[in-house]
Write a structure and sequence with these properties.
The structure is a homodimer of 560-residue chains. Chain A is of the alpha/beta class and 560 residues long. Chain A has 17 helices and 27 strands. In chain A, the strands form five sheets. In chain A, strands 8-7-6-3-2-1-21-22 form an eight-stranded mixed β-sheet. The first copy, chain A, has a seven-stranded mixed β-sheet with strand order 9-10-11-12-13-19-20. In chain A, strand 9 and strand 10 (139-145) form a beta hairpin. Chain A is globular. The mean pLDDT of chain A is 95. Chains A and B meet through helix 11, helix 13, strand 24, helix 14 and strand 25 of A and helix 11, helix 13, strand 24, helix 14 and strand 25 of B.
Chain lengths: 560, 560
C-alpha cells in the first residue's frame, strides 16, 4: 500500500442511519481536503407509515452532498440485501452514477430493483464472491463473512494508507445461522493483529442485554409449534430472512403440510434465493390458487405482512378480502417476527382482527419463534474484544442507541469514541478523531412517481387537508368587475351532523365570499390576486366559526 | 330488597372499552325485556392520534342504543376521573340527559368539563362520599374504595333483586398509595360472603406477570434520581396521578428545587386536587414566567406531554418553542410514565429531540420511576380470591387482553366466564350467563365542533386528500354551452421536482379538461353534472399518469 501524502486525510461521512434506524447511507473519503476520493457503503430506504406520512411509501436519504462530489465517487458497495441498505439504489443511482459492488444474493435482488427502474443496462454492477476483495483507488476492501437475518451479510475491511476501517454492516453472532457460514472470527482476529483504526458498528440492539439467539433455536421451536396446530396455519416472517423461510418450509413438511407462499416479496426473495443455490432441500411450494383444494390440516401459508402493512397479504387475510386465502375459527396465525417500533398500533389492530374471526395467535411474546438479526450487548462486547479498534463509531441507530453504544465502547476502554449524526464529516486520521465539517443530510420522500423534499408545500398542504379539510370557491367576474356567476362553494373533508346544517353552512360561506368581494375597491376587483386573497381570508374565518377548523381555501376567479 | 318478578332479567351491556383500551361505556339493565331500567357506568373518551386520525382530537363511544332507551336511564355513575371514564360526558350527556353521580374529586373535574360545554347548570350531579351508597330504582350501589393511579378510584357493588354485581372499574393493589386509603378488603370479603354473581373486571395488564408495585416505591426512587441531577430538571407524568404529582413536588423540595407546573392539565388537576383537600403538605409552586429567574439547580419543571403529544408542554420544550421553559446541555428530562401503545413513534421522536439538544434522559426503562395503575396477574388472582364471583366478565382491554383474562379466570375455576364485545347484551340472570342480543356500538369522532361518524365521507375524503392530494377545476360555460372562461386548474398536495414540470403538468390537466368537455354531446354540455363527471374522470386519469396518484378532483361549473 502506498504511503499517505502529507495532506491526505481519511474521513467518514454518515448520510443516513445515524440518528435513525433504517435508511443507511455511509461514505468514506480519502485524499487531500480539496480532492477527496469517495466510496459509498450502502444506500437504503426507510418505509413511510400510512398514518404518519400518507401517500409516501418510501423515504430516501438525501444524497445531495454526494451528488456534488459524484465525479470522485469510486464505487457504491452494498453490504447486504436488506431494503434499508439497498432500497434507494434504483431511486438515487441516477444522481450518483458510480459502479456498484455486491455479493451474489445481494446482486440478484439489486438487479431486480434496477430492472423495475429501467436501469439494469445502465448500472455497472460487479458481483464479488463471499470473502472476496475489491480495490477502489486508495481503498482496498475485503468482504468479511458475518451472520445476520439475511443471506450473505458482509462486513467490510477497508484498508487505506492511513489505516484500516472495520465497517461491520448489520450483524449478530449466530453460532448456527442455518444458511451461510458463521462469523469469520479468524479474519477479525487477523485484522485486530494488523490494527484496526476505526470500527463503524451496528447499534440497533445496544439496549438489549445478553445475546440474540440463533436461527437454529427458532427452527426447533417453530417446528414444534407448527406440529401442534390444527386447522389452517399461516406463518408470517420477513421474506428476506431466507433461513426463517426455509425453517417454515421444513416445519411444514415435518407437520405434513404443503407450504404456500403468499405475498409478492415472499415470491421475489424465494426466487432470488433459489437463483443463488439456496433452499435446495426444501419441499416444493404450491400456488395460492391451488391451496384451496387442500384439507385445512395439510396446508401452511407463509405470508408477508408481519408489520401490519395494510396492503400486505396478512392484513388482507385478516380483513377477509384476500383473493385466495381465508382463515377462520380453529385456524392459527404465527408471527415469527418482531414489532418494529412505530408499527405497534397497526400490528395490534391485525391481532384484533384475527381474534375477531376466532383465529388463534401465536407470537414471539410467549414463544421463542423469533430472534433478532442485530447484536445484543454481549455480542457487541465480543466484537470489541475481537476487533480492539482505536476508534469506536456507532451507527445504525437512533441517537439514544448511538449514545448508549458510545458509553459501552468507553466502558470497554476503546481509546476514542464519537457519536455521529447524519451529515457529520468525521476525520479518522491523521490525528485524533474529530468532527471537521457538517454537510447537508436529511430525508427525501418518494411521492407517487416523484421525489420531493419532506417539507415541500405539497406535504404541508396534505397534512393540513387531512386535519382541516378544504373549501373550494369559484366565481366568474365580468369586464365591469361584477360577479357574473357564482360564487360556487364546495367543501371536502368537512361536514355537519345533518344535510340541512351542511346546506346552511355552504350558503353562509357563499354569502361570506360575496360580501368579501363587495367590500373590495374597484381597483382590487380588477385584480384576481386581490379577489382571491380577500375571499380566502373571509371564508377561512367563517369556516373557523362554523367548524372550529382552519381548512385550506382555494379560490378560482374566472375572467370574462 | 324486593323479589324479582318472573320476567325480570339482569343484563350487562358494554358499549365501549371491551375490544379496546380506553373509551369506557358500560350499562346494566334490570327488568322485563320490554321495560328494562338502566344505569350507565362511566362514559369516557379515547384520544385521536395526530397521525392516525388527523383533525380528530377525541373519540367517543357511540351511545345510540342508550339514546333510544334514555327515558329508562336512572343515572350515570362515574367510577373515577380518568378521561377514558368521564371524558365523553360533556359531549354525550345531551343525548342521554340522566342524573350523574360521582365522588368529590371526580365531581370537581366533571364540573369543569360541564362548564366548558355550557352544561354546568343543566346536569344534575350528585356527590357521593367515599364508601357511600346510592339507590337507583332496582339498583342498590355501594362505592367501594380501591387503589389506582388517580385519587378516589371506586369499584361499584351493584345489588339487584337478581344478584350482586362487582364492577371493579380501574384498580390495582397498592399497599401504600400515598393518597387515599388502601383497597377495602373487608368490604370485598363481605361481598364474597354475600355471594357475587358477576365480576366485571379490568383486563389492561393481564399479560403482565407479578404485581404492579406501589406509588411509594416510585416516590423513593424518583426522590433519589432528582437529588442526583444537576442543571435544570423536567419531570413528566400524567397530571391526574396526584400521588405522582405530590411525589415530584416533595422530591423537588428535598433537592432544594422550586417546583413549577407546566401545561394546562397540570394546573387543572393541581387545582382540583387542592379543592378537595389534597396536596396540603406540598411546597408552593412557582409560575412559569417567574421560573426563568431561578438558578438552573433550583428549579424543577413538572410537565404535561409524556406521550409525545405535539401540542403539550414537553414537545414544545423539545422543539425549543416553549414560551417560558428551555432545556439545554446538562439538563435532564425524567419520564415518570409509560409508553402507551400507539405512541411509541411520537415518544421516541421526543427522546431524539432532547438528545439532539444534549439533554439527559431518564426513563422507566432503566429506573423504577413509574408504576402502572392496573392490576398485573398476581393482583388479578388476588382479586378473584377475594371476590369469588360466579361469573367473570373481563372488560377494559383489547380482545387479546379479554381472551387472556377469560383463560385466567377459567384457570382460577370461576364457574362461568364470557368475553364481551362492545354492543353485546349479556344476560347475567336468571339462568347461566348468555349473549342474548347485539346492539349498535362503535366510535364517533369529535371533529372540530361537530360529532361525526368514523366512516363519514368527510373522513374518507380527508384520508384520501392526505395521501393523494387534490385537483380543483373551475370553468365558466355560456348559454350556448361553450366554455367562456377556464378551465382554471389548481393542485393542492401535488408537486413536481421543479416549477417548470409543475407548470407543464397543470397545462396538461387543463387540456385534458377541455378535451373532456369537447367530447360531450350537446345535451350533456347543458348538464352540469355530466360536465363535472366527465371532466373529473378524465382529469383523474391524467393525474394518475403524471403522479401515479389518485387525487380528489373537484369540478365547478359556473353557468352564464
Amino acid at each position: 500500500m502506498t504511503k499517505p501524502a502529507p495532506d491526505d486525510e481519511l474521513v467518514f461521512l454518515p448520510l443516513g442511519g445515524s440518528g435513525e434506524i433504517g435508511m443507511n447511507l455511509n461514505a468514506y473519503g480519502y485524499g487531500p481536503p480539496d480532492a477527496r476520493q469517495w466510496i459509498v457503503v450502502d444506500i437504503g430506504v426507510t418505509f413511510g407509515r400510512e398514518d404518519a406520512t400518507p401517500g409516501i411509501d418510501l423515504i430516501l436519504p438525501d444524497p445531495s452532498y454526494l451528488e456534488e462530489v459524484r465525479d470522485n465517487i469510486l464505487g457504491i458497495v452494498l453490504t447486504h440485501a436488506h431494503e434499508d441498505h439497498i432500497g434507494a439504489l434504483g431511486w438515487l443511482w441516477p444522481r450518483l452514477k458510480a459502479p456498484c459492488y455486491a455479493t451474489p444474493f445481494t446482486a440478484a435482488l439489486i438487479r431486480e430493483k434496477l430492472r423495475e427502474h429501467g436501469l439494469l443496462e445502465k448500472v455497472p454492477l460487479t458481483e464479488i464472491p463471499l470473502k472476496g476483495k475489491l480495490t477502489l483507488g486508495p481503498f482496498d476492501i475485503d468482504f468479511v463473512t458475518l451472520t445476520h437475518s439475511i443471506p450473505e451479510p458482509n462486513g467490510l475491511a477497508i484498508r487505506t494508507p492511513l489505516g484500516l476501517i472495520w465497517h461491520t454492516g448489520d450483524w449478530k453472532i449466530d453460532p448456527d445461522p442455518l444458511i451461510g457460514e458463521t462469523t469469520d472470527v479468524a479474519k477479525l482476529q487477523a485484522m485486530a493483529e494488523e490494527g484496526i483504526l476505526a470500527m463503524v458498528c451496528d447499534s440497533t440492539n445496544v439496549f438489549v442485554e445478553g445475546s440474540t439467539g440463533s436461527e437454529s433455536d427458532v427452527r426447533k421451536k417453530l417446528t414444534e409449534v407448527i406440529a401442534q396446530c390444527t386447522g389452517r396455519v399461516a406463518v408470517t416472517a420477513f421474506a428476506s430472512n431466507v433461513a426463517r423461510v426455509e425453517t417454515a418450509l421444513h416445519a411444514a413438511r415435518a407437520a405434513g403440510r404443503t407450504p404456500c407462499l403468499v405475498g409478492r416479496s415472499m415470491h421475489r426473495i424465494y426466487h432470488a434465493a433459489k437463483s443463488v443455490g439456496l433452499l435446495q432441500n426444501s419441499p416444493p411450494v404450491i400456488d395460492e390458487e391451488d391451496a384451496g383444494s387442500l384439507p385445512d390440516e395439510k396446508v401452511l401459508f407463509l405470508c408477508t405482512g408481519s408489520q401490519g402493512e395494510a396492503r400486505a397479504a396478512l392484513s388482507r387475510i385478516a380483513r377477509g378480502d384476500h383473493r385466495n386465502v381465508s382463515l377462520r375459527q380453529g385456524d392459527t396465525v404465527i408471527f415469527s417476527s418482531r414489532v418494529i417500533p412505530g408499527n405497534e398500533a397497526a400490528i395490534h389492530a391485525l391481532y384484533e382482527a384475527f381474534l375477531g374471526r376466532g383465529v388463534e395467535l401465536i407470537t414471539a411474546d410467549d414463544h421463542h419463534i423469533h430472534v433478532s438479526g442485530h447484536p445484543a450487548r454481549d455480542e457487541l462486547k465480543q466484537m470489541y474484544q475481537w476487533a480492539r479498534p482505536r476508534i469506536a463509531i456507532p451507527v445504525h441507530g437512533e441517537m439514544r442507541h448511538i449514545r448508549e453504544h458510545v458509553k459501552l465502547a468507553q466502558a470497554l476502554q476503546v481509546p476514542e469514541t464519537i457519536a455521529p449524526n447524519n451529515g457529520d464529516m468525521i476525520r479518522l486520521a491523521p490525528g485524533p478523531v474529530a468532527l471537521i465539517d457538517e454537510v447537508p443530510a436529511g430525508r427525501l420522500y418518494v411521492d407517487g412517481s416523484v421525489i420531493i423534499e419532506t417539507e415541500d408545500d405539497a406535504i404541508k398542504d396534505r397534512r393540513r387537508l387531512a386535519a382541516e379539510g378544504a373549501v373550494n370557491i369559484a366565481l366568474a367576474v365580468g369586464a365591469k368587475n361584477v360577479i357574473l356567476a357564482g360564487p360556487n362553494v364546495s367543501v371536502r373533508g368537512l361536514t355537519m351532523p345533518d344535510e340541512d346544517d351542511l346546506e346552511l353552512a355552504l350558503e353562509e360561506l357563499e354569502r361570506t365570499a360575496e360580501a368579501a368581494f363587495a367590500k373590495l375597491s374597484h381597483a382590487d376587483r380588477g385584480d384576481d390576486d386581490a379577489i382571491e386573497g380577500a375571499v380566502m381570508r373571509s371564508v377561512r374565518k367563517a369556516a373557523e366559526k362554523l367548524w372550529r377548523k382552519r381548512p385550506l381555501v382555494d379560490v378560482s376567479v374566472l375572467r370574462l
